[in-house]
Amino acid sequence: MIAVVGDLEIPGGSTIDKSSVVQGKAEVGADCRIRRNLKALGGISMAEGCLVRPNIASGGCIDLGRKTRIEGDVHAKIMRLSEGAEIHGRAEARQIQSVHTFSFDRYKEKE
């Protein structure tokens, strides 16, 4: 098990094979593979294309990036799902939000 006092930043493309408990926030880079439970008291932010096979939990907010796939349970106070994010398990949260992405180009002023 990995125990972190403070925040944890996992670089993109990494694979984590040990359960992790983070006292602060966990930031997971793009295309990471998490193969054990991840718990972060301060929140979890996952970039695009991550795969999580067990469970994730947070006492704060969990942000799931585009095309992130969770094959397990998710527990959080607030959960934000980006376009294409999938949860194949139980999802428990006080509040669930869908984050839509779109282009601002059509709103630019005409010159």
Strand count, sense and barrel status of the largest sheet are:
10 strands, parallel
Low-pLDDT segments, ≥5 res:
102-111
Tally of DSSP β-strands: 15
Quote the average pLDDT: 89
Secondary structure class reads mainly beta
How many angstroms separate the termini?
Answer: 57 Å
Overall 3D shape: globular
Query: What series of H and E elements makes up the topology?
Result: EEEEEEEEEEEEEEE
- What is Rg? 15 Å
Could you estimate the helical fraction of the residues in percent? under 10%
Strand content: over 45%
Helix tally equals: 0
Counted up, domains total: 1
Q: What do you see in this structure?
A:
This protein has strands spanning about 1-5, 10, 15, 20, 25-30, 35, 40, 45, 50, 55-60, 60-65, 70, 75-80, 85, 90-100. The protein has about 110 residues and is mainly beta. The protein has one domain (about 1-105). The strands form two sheets. Strands 1, 2, 4, 5, 7, 8, 10, 11, 13 and 15 form a ten-stranded parallel sheet that branches. The protein starts with a strand and ends in a 12-residue tail after the last strand. The relative contact order is 0.15.
